[in-house]
Amino acid sequence: QVQLVESGGGLVQAGGSLRLSCAASGTSFGIKAMGWYRQAPGKQRELVAVIASVSTTTYADSVKGRFTISRDNAKKTVYLQMNSLKPEDTAVYYCNAQIAILGDYWGKGTLVTVSS
Question: Which of 16, 76, 80, 113 has the most CB atoms around it within 10 Å of its CB?
């Protein structure tokens, strides 16, 4: 029913940039918040950035000044612009959406690999 489809992951050299996208489909209910989380091998999943319905944003300290989250409410899509990438940014990135009435949904993840 509800699907979150991520795109934009890949391999990039340190200092490079990537832009992740996540589009929600299958629901007519409003999305309260959308965000990006990541999980590196052997580590727990952590919040990267989140954006609320009124476009207030929160970032992890490790990505402040380098990553920018934004959303297009008409397209039900959230973006993550990642600049000045570091090898420690390597992880599977997951899209999250909090949908009114229905609850919390996750994408399947997209792999970002940053080489040194």
Answer: 80
